[in-house]
Design a protein that fits this description.
- The complex is a heterodimer of chains A (about 300) and B (about 280).
- With about 300 residues, chain A is mostly helical.
- Chain A has one domain: MetI-like fold, CATH 1.10.3720.
- Chain A is built from 13 helices and 2 strands.
- A two-stranded antiparallel sheet of chain A has the order 1-2.
- Chain B has 2 domains: about 60 residues, no CATH class; about 210 residues, Orthogonal Bundle (MetI-like fold), CATH 1.10.3720.
- Chain B has 14 helices and no strands.
- The chains are: A mainly alpha (about 300), B mainly alpha (about 280).
- Chains A and B meet through helix 1, helix 3, helix 4, helix 5 and helix 7 of A and helix 1, helix 3, helix 4, helix 5 and helix 10 of B.
Chain lengths: ~300, ~280
Amino acid sequence: MNASARPRRRRVSLLPYLLILPTFVFVALFTIWPMLLASYQSLFLQRLNIARFRTPTFIGAQNYIDLFGDDRFHQVMVNTLLYVLGTVPLSVVLGFLFALLVNRAMRGIGLARLFFFYPTILPLVSAATIWMFFFTPDYGIFNTALRAIGYTGPQNWTSNPNLALISVMIVTVWKNAGYYMIFYLAGLQGLPQDVFEAAALDGASGWQMLWRITFPLLRRTTLFVTTIAFISAFQTVDHIFVLTQGGPAGASSVLLYYLWEMRFEFLNVGAASALTVVLILVLLVFTLSNFLISEQREDAYAK
Amino acid sequence: MPSKVAPRSFGARLGSVLLTIFTFVLVILWAVPMAWAVVASLRPPTDPLGRGDVWFAFPLTLENYARALTLAPFGQYYVNTVVVILMILTVQMVTVTLAAFAFAHYDFRGKRVLFYLVLLQLMIPTTALLAPNFSTIRFLGLFDTRLAIAIPYFGSAFGTFLLRQLFLEIPRDLVDAGVMDGCRWWQLLRHIYLPPAVPTLIAFGLSSTAWHWNEFLWPLVITNSDKARPLTAGLVRFTQLGEIGAQWALLSAATLIVILPLFVVFLFFQKRFIQSFVYSGIK
């Protein structure tokens, strides 16, 4: 089978395949196989909590049809979009801002860096248990602050339909901004200094340098950070378990949380599989389009 | 904001002071939650938090920690978390090194396809596949074990990718010299490829540790008892215990029990940690 392989090293053998095998077995078993399994199971009716539906029955695309006709699914997709659009840009911009602020030679700046970064290493669930207090009525910090400026409206953030998703988003931004900061910090420290000196000689202002030089030079960092922020926005729902359980009435439920609920609360294997397929497609579209955009940009800049 | 940068004018100095104040305000905002949790966890249980009285209450006490420890088996949760992480790290180091070596050192049929298939794990995070993976774990008879938490991460696309990049930078001459000297593949790996890769492996290990210490959803669905449950899932279970209610002091103590070990390690190895996170992009 390897007769036509062109060996870079002299020996041609099964060896490289054997070396890759351990990794491949686990990737196949827990990444490739589940993608196929979910696609297959999504075509069957299987509900573990109803005796006559316990054994799978083929129903074609019915799970998908049901899903797209389901109001909760629409709500969840809108929430997911709001969550992504609300957390990704804000935490990336804050990360950039933090990096600019702590990239100065100053006493105590290391400490500032530490304080911006530390939420990164906290488990998201424990960040949420801390923040839960800040959102509660009566003594929650937000409410105290809002009362101070004369606001007396809704008080319990996590059980208010308009504020539940926002509470979840606040925790996300608080936790992630410092993580994105370190990539920008690394980027800033790798920038060529002579460009700035030349610009300063030409009389460029601080703002101009920031937006005309620093930001464009860091576009690769921005692209990278945005990509990981997107992927993380779709795969982290831990804080929802602590803060809102997706409620009230689905107001803070997002795709992955709904998927978990469908599979492990409603025990609806077919619908959960269809949701898994939707999630996989969303992730693929996002990462691939990000990749294509980056290739295009690189071309544009190369000219 | 500074208007001109060249000479240190009054405006520039004013701008610099304003920036410092701004930084300080943000630092306070970011520090408050953790600071509050520490303070609240030290309040005497007899003195509940009330409106406008949420900070210190004396005498400071460790009672909340003691009570939290009696209400849930955090000791067992620690052991579980640590065992899971050790399993993952041990296996990952081996699988990642072998695969990266193969992808960097050899040419073989199907190499690109295999590489992209492995990289698929980067695009579709394992967490998203929890429903079908749950079936697989049940099928394998591993439900409610620590191995079940660890096993999906035994192969790491990210680690493979990271290490392969590093291996590719090793000068060909060096490798060729090794081959000329009649080195077998494991000797090449051991003496030529691995030595410069140690810092990368450490960085990968650190970020892998932090990520698995924090992981929640997969352990939640794949465990069902305290014998396998890690700290994060244990904490959430703790918040749902009937008697916890709104006992913030107790809850803060439990939260800190979960956070502290990794946090202390982080404070000691700050630089290393941060570097490893930069290195390892995708957690």
